Amino acid sequence: MKSARRLSRALLLAQLGAAILIGWSAVAWAKMAPWQAALLGIGSVVLVRLLINMNNFVLAARFAGATPEAFRLGLGARLRLLAEEYLASMLVTSWLIPRAGAATRIYPGSRRPPVLLLHGYGCNSGYWVHLTPLLDAARISHATVDLEPVAGDIDGYVPLVERAVRDLCAAAGAEKVAIVAHSMGGLVARAWMRAHGTARVARVITLGTPHHGTALARFGLGINAFQMRPGSAWLGALAAAEDGAARALVTSLYTHHDNIVSPRESSRLEGARNLEFGGVGHVALGSNPRVLAAVMHELALPPSRAPGC
Q1: What is the average per-residue pLDDT within 69-96?
Q2: Which residues pair with 142 in a beta bridge?
Q3: Residues of the chain with CATH 3.40.50.1820
Q4: Which of 46, 69, 88, 265 gives 284 a disulfide partner, CB atoms 3.0 to 4.6 angstroms apart?
Q5: Does the predicted model carry a pTM greater than 0.85?
Protein backbone atom coordinates (compact mmCIF):
# COMPACT_ATOMS: atom_id res chain seq x y z
CA MET A 1 0.00 0.00 0.00
CA LYS A 2 1.12 3.54 -0.70
CA SER A 3 -0.19 5.16 2.50
CA ALA A 4 0.89 4.28 6.04
CA ARG A 5 -2.58 5.29 7.16
CA ARG A 6 -4.26 2.72 4.93
CA LEU A 7 -1.70 0.06 5.75
CA SER A 8 -2.17 0.54 9.49
CA ARG A 9 -5.94 0.39 9.14
CA ALA A 10 -5.67 -2.86 7.18
CA LEU A 11 -3.43 -4.34 9.87
CA LEU A 12 -5.86 -3.25 12.58
CA LEU A 13 -8.71 -4.94 10.73
CA ALA A 14 -6.61 -8.10 10.46
CA GLN A 15 -5.93 -8.01 14.21
CA LEU A 16 -9.62 -7.43 14.92
CA GLY A 17 -10.47 -10.38 12.71
CA ALA A 18 -7.97 -12.56 14.56
CA ALA A 19 -9.41 -11.51 17.93
CA ILE A 20 -12.96 -12.28 16.76
CA LEU A 21 -11.91 -15.68 15.41
CA ILE A 22 -10.18 -16.60 18.67
CA GLY A 23 -13.17 -15.43 20.69
CA TRP A 24 -15.65 -17.32 18.51
CA SER A 25 -13.55 -20.49 18.77
CA ALA A 26 -13.43 -20.14 22.55
CA VAL A 27 -17.23 -19.92 22.72
CA ALA A 28 -17.82 -22.72 20.20
CA TRP A 29 -15.23 -25.20 21.41
CA ALA A 30 -14.32 -24.30 24.98
CA LYS A 31 -17.85 -23.17 25.94
CA MET A 32 -16.50 -19.94 27.42
CA ALA A 33 -18.81 -17.12 28.38
CA PRO A 34 -18.88 -14.36 25.72
CA TRP A 35 -17.09 -11.86 27.95
CA GLN A 36 -14.36 -14.39 28.70
CA ALA A 37 -13.98 -15.20 25.02
CA ALA A 38 -13.75 -11.49 24.18
CA LEU A 39 -10.99 -11.01 26.75
CA LEU A 40 -9.15 -14.04 25.38
CA GLY A 41 -9.34 -12.76 21.82
CA ILE A 42 -8.19 -9.24 22.67
CA GLY A 43 -5.58 -10.51 25.10
CA SER A 44 -4.12 -12.85 22.49
CA VAL A 45 -3.62 -10.02 20.00
CA VAL A 46 -2.12 -7.77 22.68
CA LEU A 47 0.23 -10.58 23.74
CA VAL A 48 1.38 -11.20 20.17
CA ARG A 49 2.11 -7.49 19.77
CA LEU A 50 4.15 -7.60 22.98
CA LEU A 51 6.12 -10.62 21.76
CA ILE A 52 6.88 -8.86 18.48
CA ASN A 53 8.15 -5.85 20.42
CA MET A 54 10.31 -8.04 22.64
CA ASN A 55 11.66 -9.87 19.60
CA ASN A 56 12.84 -6.56 18.15
CA PHE A 57 14.99 -6.03 21.24
CA VAL A 58 16.38 -9.56 20.89
CA LEU A 59 17.21 -9.09 17.19
CA ALA A 60 18.77 -5.68 17.81
CA ALA A 61 20.91 -7.08 20.64
CA ARG A 62 22.47 -9.62 18.25
CA PHE A 63 24.14 -6.82 16.27
CA ALA A 64 24.40 -4.11 18.92
CA GLY A 65 27.80 -4.77 20.46
CA ALA A 66 28.67 -3.94 24.06
CA THR A 67 26.63 -1.29 25.87
CA PRO A 68 28.84 1.38 27.49
CA GLU A 69 29.12 0.97 31.25
CA ALA A 70 27.38 4.29 31.94
CA PHE A 71 24.28 3.12 30.04
CA ARG A 72 23.88 -0.41 31.35
CA LEU A 73 20.51 -1.12 32.97
CA GLY A 74 19.32 -3.24 35.85
CA LEU A 75 16.26 -5.48 35.66
CA GLY A 76 13.84 -2.79 36.80
CA ALA A 77 15.10 -0.28 34.25
CA ARG A 78 14.93 -2.92 31.51
CA LEU A 79 11.29 -3.61 32.33
CA ARG A 80 10.51 0.13 32.25
CA LEU A 81 12.29 0.38 28.90
CA LEU A 82 10.19 -2.47 27.47
CA ALA A 83 6.95 -1.08 28.90
CA GLU A 84 7.57 2.43 27.56
CA GLU A 85 8.54 1.19 24.11
CA TYR A 86 5.59 -1.22 23.94
CA LEU A 87 3.07 1.42 24.95
CA ALA A 88 4.61 3.96 22.55
CA SER A 89 4.48 1.44 19.70
CA MET A 90 0.86 0.49 20.43
CA LEU A 91 -0.20 4.14 20.57
CA VAL A 92 1.59 5.10 17.37
CA THR A 93 0.61 2.12 15.23
CA SER A 94 -2.89 1.44 16.57
CA TRP A 95 -4.20 4.96 17.19
CA LEU A 96 -2.07 7.78 15.80
CA ILE A 97 -1.02 6.54 12.36
CA PRO A 98 -4.53 5.37 11.33
CA ARG A 99 -5.98 8.81 12.13
CA ALA A 100 -3.23 11.30 11.29
CA GLY A 101 -2.56 13.53 8.31
CA ALA A 102 -0.04 16.22 7.44
CA ALA A 103 -0.72 19.59 9.07
CA THR A 104 0.76 23.07 9.39
CA ARG A 105 0.61 25.54 12.28
CA ILE A 106 1.88 29.09 11.79
CA TYR A 107 2.65 31.64 14.52
CA PRO A 108 3.02 35.06 12.88
CA GLY A 109 5.84 37.17 14.24
CA SER A 110 7.79 34.28 15.73
CA ARG A 111 11.54 34.86 15.61
CA ARG A 112 12.35 31.17 15.81
CA PRO A 113 12.91 29.23 12.59
CA PRO A 114 9.86 27.17 11.66
CA VAL A 115 10.23 23.42 12.16
CA LEU A 116 9.59 20.73 9.58
CA LEU A 117 8.89 17.30 11.09
CA LEU A 118 9.88 14.17 9.15
CA HIS A 119 8.73 10.77 10.39
CA GLY A 120 10.42 7.40 9.95
CA TYR A 121 9.89 4.15 8.09
CA GLY A 122 6.32 2.85 7.99
CA CYS A 123 4.98 5.82 9.91
CA ASN A 124 3.29 9.16 9.16
CA SER A 125 2.70 12.57 10.72
CA GLY A 126 0.92 11.02 13.69
CA TYR A 127 4.30 10.19 15.19
CA TRP A 128 4.77 13.81 16.27
CA VAL A 129 1.73 14.11 18.52
CA HIS A 130 3.90 14.56 21.62
CA LEU A 131 6.29 17.15 20.17
CA THR A 132 3.81 19.45 18.44
CA PRO A 133 2.17 20.63 21.71
CA LEU A 134 5.62 21.71 22.92
CA LEU A 135 6.17 23.62 19.69
CA ASP A 136 2.75 25.22 20.11
CA ALA A 137 3.55 26.26 23.67
CA ALA A 138 6.77 27.89 22.44
CA ARG A 139 4.88 29.49 19.53
CA ILE A 140 7.16 27.87 16.97
CA SER A 141 5.61 27.48 13.52
CA HIS A 142 5.76 23.90 12.30
CA ALA A 143 4.57 21.51 9.63
CA THR A 144 4.51 17.77 9.09
CA VAL A 145 4.77 15.86 5.85
CA ASP A 146 3.75 12.28 5.07
CA LEU A 147 6.55 10.47 3.26
CA GLU A 148 4.83 8.26 0.70
CA PRO A 149 4.84 5.67 -0.75
CA VAL A 150 5.67 3.72 2.40
CA ALA A 151 8.19 1.43 0.71
CA GLY A 152 9.55 3.97 -1.76
CA ASP A 153 13.02 5.20 -2.67
CA ILE A 154 14.40 7.62 -0.06
CA ASP A 155 15.45 10.00 -2.84
CA GLY A 156 11.85 9.89 -4.03
CA TYR A 157 10.80 11.69 -0.85
CA VAL A 158 13.09 14.65 -1.59
CA PRO A 159 10.55 16.53 -3.79
CA LEU A 160 7.98 16.21 -0.98
CA VAL A 161 10.44 17.75 1.48
CA GLU A 162 11.42 20.51 -0.96
CA ARG A 163 7.77 21.46 -1.47
CA ALA A 164 7.14 21.39 2.28
CA VAL A 165 10.19 23.59 2.98
CA ARG A 166 9.11 26.15 0.39
CA ASP A 167 5.53 26.21 1.68
CA LEU A 168 6.58 26.46 5.32
CA CYS A 169 9.10 29.25 4.67
CA ALA A 170 6.52 31.18 2.67
CA ALA A 171 3.79 30.75 5.28
CA ALA A 172 6.05 31.65 8.20
CA GLY A 173 7.90 34.43 6.38
CA ALA A 174 11.21 32.72 7.15
CA GLU A 175 14.41 32.20 5.19
CA LYS A 176 15.44 29.02 6.98
CA VAL A 177 13.83 26.01 8.58
CA ALA A 178 14.86 23.64 11.32
CA ILE A 179 14.21 19.96 10.62
CA VAL A 180 13.42 17.40 13.29
CA ALA A 181 13.46 13.88 11.90
CA HIS A 182 12.94 10.44 13.35
CA SER A 183 14.70 7.30 12.08
CA MET A 184 14.58 7.13 8.27
CA GLY A 185 13.41 10.75 8.26
CA GLY A 186 16.94 11.81 9.18
CA LEU A 187 18.26 10.14 6.04
CA VAL A 188 15.54 11.86 4.03
CA ALA A 189 16.66 15.22 5.47
CA ARG A 190 20.28 14.51 4.51
CA ALA A 191 19.20 13.40 1.03
CA TRP A 192 17.25 16.65 0.64
CA MET A 193 20.31 18.70 1.67
CA ARG A 194 22.41 16.77 -0.85
CA ALA A 195 19.95 17.70 -3.60
CA HIS A 196 19.10 21.27 -2.60
CA GLY A 197 21.96 22.50 -0.45
CA THR A 198 22.01 23.89 3.09
CA ALA A 199 21.26 27.58 2.51
CA ARG A 200 17.76 27.24 3.97
CA VAL A 201 18.76 25.04 6.92
CA ALA A 202 18.99 26.44 10.44
CA ARG A 203 19.67 23.01 11.93
CA VAL A 204 18.74 19.35 11.57
CA ILE A 205 17.92 17.23 14.63
CA THR A 206 17.70 13.49 14.08
CA LEU A 207 16.24 10.98 16.52
CA GLY A 208 17.41 7.38 16.24
CA THR A 209 18.45 7.75 12.61
CA PRO A 210 20.49 4.84 11.21
CA HIS A 211 23.08 7.13 9.62
CA HIS A 212 25.27 4.12 8.86
CA GLY A 213 22.40 1.66 8.39
CA THR A 214 20.75 -0.93 10.62
CA ALA A 215 21.00 -4.71 10.46
CA LEU A 216 17.24 -4.96 11.04
CA ALA A 217 16.64 -3.31 7.65
CA ARG A 218 17.24 -6.74 6.10
CA PHE A 219 13.84 -7.73 7.52
CA GLY A 220 12.09 -4.68 6.05
CA LEU A 221 10.26 -4.38 2.76
CA GLY A 222 10.80 -1.81 0.05
CA ILE A 223 13.57 0.12 -1.66
CA ASN A 224 14.06 2.31 1.42
CA ALA A 225 14.68 -0.72 3.65
CA PHE A 226 17.31 -1.97 1.20
CA GLN A 227 18.96 1.46 1.21
CA MET A 228 19.16 1.41 5.02
CA ARG A 229 21.16 -1.82 5.20
CA PRO A 230 24.69 -1.32 6.57
CA GLY A 231 27.22 -0.84 3.82
CA SER A 232 24.65 -0.09 1.13
CA ALA A 233 25.81 1.83 -1.92
CA TRP A 234 23.14 4.44 -1.25
CA LEU A 235 24.44 5.21 2.26
CA GLY A 236 27.98 5.37 0.93
CA ALA A 237 27.02 7.84 -1.79
CA LEU A 238 25.10 9.98 0.70
CA ALA A 239 28.06 10.22 3.06
CA ALA A 240 30.50 10.93 0.21
CA ALA A 241 28.42 13.89 -0.95
CA GLU A 242 28.52 15.70 2.42
CA ASP A 243 31.09 18.17 3.64
CA GLY A 244 31.95 19.33 7.15
CA ALA A 245 29.62 22.34 6.95
CA ALA A 246 26.62 20.12 6.23
CA ARG A 247 27.49 17.70 9.04
CA ALA A 248 27.91 20.62 11.48
CA LEU A 249 24.24 21.47 10.99
CA VAL A 250 23.16 18.09 12.35
CA THR A 251 22.46 17.10 15.94
CA SER A 252 21.99 13.34 16.29
CA LEU A 253 20.10 12.11 19.35
CA TYR A 254 20.31 8.37 19.84
CA THR A 255 19.77 5.72 22.47
CA HIS A 256 22.02 2.87 23.51
CA HIS A 257 18.88 0.72 23.86
CA ASP A 258 17.42 1.24 20.41
CA ASN A 259 15.44 -1.82 19.35
CA ILE A 260 15.45 -1.00 15.63
CA VAL A 261 18.78 0.70 14.92
CA SER A 262 21.56 -1.82 15.43
CA PRO A 263 24.41 -1.42 15.94
CA ARG A 264 23.32 1.55 18.05
CA GLU A 265 26.49 3.50 17.18
CA SER A 266 25.09 3.68 13.65
CA SER A 267 23.20 6.77 14.82
CA ARG A 268 26.45 8.50 15.67
CA LEU A 269 27.32 10.81 12.78
CA GLU A 270 30.88 12.03 12.38
CA GLY A 271 31.13 15.82 12.32
CA ALA A 272 27.70 16.25 13.91
CA ARG A 273 26.72 17.03 17.49
CA ASN A 274 25.90 13.63 19.00
CA LEU A 275 23.76 13.31 22.15
CA GLU A 276 23.51 9.91 23.87
CA PHE A 277 20.59 8.52 25.86
CA GLY A 278 19.90 5.29 27.67
CA GLY A 279 16.78 3.44 28.74
CA VAL A 280 14.74 4.59 25.73
CA GLY A 281 13.50 2.51 22.80
CA HIS A 282 13.23 3.49 19.13
CA VAL A 283 9.59 4.54 18.89
CA ALA A 284 9.62 6.06 22.39
CA LEU A 285 12.21 8.62 21.25
CA GLY A 286 9.26 10.67 20.03
CA SER A 287 7.48 10.72 23.39
CA ASN A 288 10.13 10.32 26.09
CA PRO A 289 10.23 13.53 28.21
CA ARG A 290 14.05 13.58 28.41
CA VAL A 291 14.41 13.32 24.66
CA LEU A 292 11.71 15.90 23.94
CA ALA A 293 13.35 18.32 26.40
CA ALA A 294 16.65 17.87 24.56
CA VAL A 295 14.95 18.55 21.21
CA MET A 296 13.39 21.75 22.50
CA HIS A 297 16.73 22.80 23.97
CA GLU A 298 18.46 22.27 20.63
CA LEU A 299 15.76 24.25 18.83
CA ALA A 300 16.29 27.14 21.26
CA LEU A 301 19.99 27.44 20.42
CA PRO A 302 21.08 30.20 18.00
CA PRO A 303 20.77 29.00 14.39
CA SER A 304 23.89 27.39 13.04
CA ARG A 305 25.73 29.27 10.34
CA ALA A 306 24.91 27.97 6.91
CA PRO A 307 26.09 29.06 3.47
CA GLY A 308 24.19 32.02 2.05
CA CYS A 309 21.80 31.81 -0.91
Answers
A1: 96
A2: 105, 115
A3: 104-300
A4: 88
A5: yes
